C-alpha cells in the first residue's frame, strides 16, 4: 500500500496560454512531457460513468485504508477537482485546477498499478475560471477513444492530448462565446462519437453545443441551445442499425443529434433534469427529471419508445446507475433499487453515516459503491429483496466526483487526491 505519495515522479511541466487564437494546433511528438509506451488495452472506463451505465463486471470487496487494508495507493494531485477519473489500459487520467482564480489547469496521467505520475500537461485558462467554492474549474470529466484524451474545463478550455501526453490541439471556446458561463461553474462532460467531440454548454447567457473534429480540433458544426442553466452531460447511444446519436438533455426538451453534422434525429418535447444526466443500460435509456423516464433505443429511425416512468427513482444530484438487471438511484442518504425492465421497486436502503452528495454510484455485479460529499464511502450489497452495507470507509476529504471501476479496482478522486482500492 502506498499512502500520501508526493506528486511525482515529477515530469517537465509545460504551460500553455493561447491569448487570442481560438485554436492551437501542435504536431504530435513536439511537446512530450514524458516517454511512455502506448497501452495495449483500450479504455476500461473511458468517459463519465464509463459506458454510460456506471457499471463494471468486477470491483473490490471492501474499502479499507489501514496498512492491512486494500488501498493500493494514494497520490496527491496538483489542484482541486470534482471531475471523475477515467481509465484506459494501465493509465488513470484526471484533471485538476489550481490558483487563486482556478485558472491553472492540469491533465495528469497516473499508473493504474503503482500510482506514479506518468505524464502531466498544464495550461492557463483562456475563459472565465471562477466557480462556486464547492465546485472547481476541473468539473467536466475527460473522455478518451483509447488513442487520445480530451479534457474540458468550466472555463470552456478544450484540450486534446495523445495517449503519450503530447498536446495535439487546444481550443479556447470562450473566445467565440465570451458570455458562456455562470458564477456556479459549468460541468457538462464532453463525449466522443464518430470521431467528433461533442460539448454542451448551457447557461443564461451564450448557450451552445458544438461538434469538434477529434483529429484536428476544427469545428464541424455548432448550434444555439436553450438559454437556461444546465449541468447535465450529453450521452452517445447506438441504435439497432448501428448509427450513433448524441442525446442532449435540458430543462425544456431532449434532442438527439447526428454527432458529425448536428442534425436533429429526434426530439422529446419534455424538460428533464439539469443536474443529473441521462444514463444507458443496454437498450434502456434513462432520463431523470421529476420522474425517471425509461425508453428503449433498439429501434432505428424513430425516437426511442417509452417503457415506463416512476418518480420513486428520480435522483437529486447523482445520475442513475444500472448493472443491466437493476437500477440504483441515490436520493440524499437513501439508495433505491428497482428492476430495469418494469420499474418495480426492489428495496430502499438508508445509508449509515451518509450525508448526501453529488457523486454517482457505480456498480460491479451486485455491489454498489457510494460516496458522500464529506468523503464517507460504503459498499452496498444487493440481496435482491433487501440491501446490506458490507463495507464503510472515511477518506477525511471531500468527494464530489463519481468513482471509476477498471480491472477490478475502484478509483476515487477526492478534492486533492486520487485513491485506488483493489
From TrEMBL:
* Biological classification of the source: Bacteria, Pseudomonadati, Planctomycetota, Planctomycetia, Planctomycetales
Q: What Pfam families does the annotation carry? A: PQQ_2
Q: Superkingdom of this entry's organism?
A: Bacteria
Q: What PANTHER family has UniProt attached to this entry?
A: CELL SURFACE PROTEIN, OUTER MEMBRANE PROTEIN ASSEMBLY FACTOR BAMB
- Protein source organism: Crateriforma conspicua
SUPFAM superfamilies listed in its UniProt record: Quinoprotein alcohol dehydrogenase-like
* Name by which UniProt lists this protein: Outer membrane biogenesis protein BamB
Ranges for domain Pyrrolo-quinoline quinone repeat:
58-198
Q: Which InterPro entries match?
A: PQQ_b-propeller_rpt, PQQ_rpt_dom, Quinoprotein_ADH-like_sf, WD40/YVTN_repeat-like_dom_sf
Amino acid at each position: 500500500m502506498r499512502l500520501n505519495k508526493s506528486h511525482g515522479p515529477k515530469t517537465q511541466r509545460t504551460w500553455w496560454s493561447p491569448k487570442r487564437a481560438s485554436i492551437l494546433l501542435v504536431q504530435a511528438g513536439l511537446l512530450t512531457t514524458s516517454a511512455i509506451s502506448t497501452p495495449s488495452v483500450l479504455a476500461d472506463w473511458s468517459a463519465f460513468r464509463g459506458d454510460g451505465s456506471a457499471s463494471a463486471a468486477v470491483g473490490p470487496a471492501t474499502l479499507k485504508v489501514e496498512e492491512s487494508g486494500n488501498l493500493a495507493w494514494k497520490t496527491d494531485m496538483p489542484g482541486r477537482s470534482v471531475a471523475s477519473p477515467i481509465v484506459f489500459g494501465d493509465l488513470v487520467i484526471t484533471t485538476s485546477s489550481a490558483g487563486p482564480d482556478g485558472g491553472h489547469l492540469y491533465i495528469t496521467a497516473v499508473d493504474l498499478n503503482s500510482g506514479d505520475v506518468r505524464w502531466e500537461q498544464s495550461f492557463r485558462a483562456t475563459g472565465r475560471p471562477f466557480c462556486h467554492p464547492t465546485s472547481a474549474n476541473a468539473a467536466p470529466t475527460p473522455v478518451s477513444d483509447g488513442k487520445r484524451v480530451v479534457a474540458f474545463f468550466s472555463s470552456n478550455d478544450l484540450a486534446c492530448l495523445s495517449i503519450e501526453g503530447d498536446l495535439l490541439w487546444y481550443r479556447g471556446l470562450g473566445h467565440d462565446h465570451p458570455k458562456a458561463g455562470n458564477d456556479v461553474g459549468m460541468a457538462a462532460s464532453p463525449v466522443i462519437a464518430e470521431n467528433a467531440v461533442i460539448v454542451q454548454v448551457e447557461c443564461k447567457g451564450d448557450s451552445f453545443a458544438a461538434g469538434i473534429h477529434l483529429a484536428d480540433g476544427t469545428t464541424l458544426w455548432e448550434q444555439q441551445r436553450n438559454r437556461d442553466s444546465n449541468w447535465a452531460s450529453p450521452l452517445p447511444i447506438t441504435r439497432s442499425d448501428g448509427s450513433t446519436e448524441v442525446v442532449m438533455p435540458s430543462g425544456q426538451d431532449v434532442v438527439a443529434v447526428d454527432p458529425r453534422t448536428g442534425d436533429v434525429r429526434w426530439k422529446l418535447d419534455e424538460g428533464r433534469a439539469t443536474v443529473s444526466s441521462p444514463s444507458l443500460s443496454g437498450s434502456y435509456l434513462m432520463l431523470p427529471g421529476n420522474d425517471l423516464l425509461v425508453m428503449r433505443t433498439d429501434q432505428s429511425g424513430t425516437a426511442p419508445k417509452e417503457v415506463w416512468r416512476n418518480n420513486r427513482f428520480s435522483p437529486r444530484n447523482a445520475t442513475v446507475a444500472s448493472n443491466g438487471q437493476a437500477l440504483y438511484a441515490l436520493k440524499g442518504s437513501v439508495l433505491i433499487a428497482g428492476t430495469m425492465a418494469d420499474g418495480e421497486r426492489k428495496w430502499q436502503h438508508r445509508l449509515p453515516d451518509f450525508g448526501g452528495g453529488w457523486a454517482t454510484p457505480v456498480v460491479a455485479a451486485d455491489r454498489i459503491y457510494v460516496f458522500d460529499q464529506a468523503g464517507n464511502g460504503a459498499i452496498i450489497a444487493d440481496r435482491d429483496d433487501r440491501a446490506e452495507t458490507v463495507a464503510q470507509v472515511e477518506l477525511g476529504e471531500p468527494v464530489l466526483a463519481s468513482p471509476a471501476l477498471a480491472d477490478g479496482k475502484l478509483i476515487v478522486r477526492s478534492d486533492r487526491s486520487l485513491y485506488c482500492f483493489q
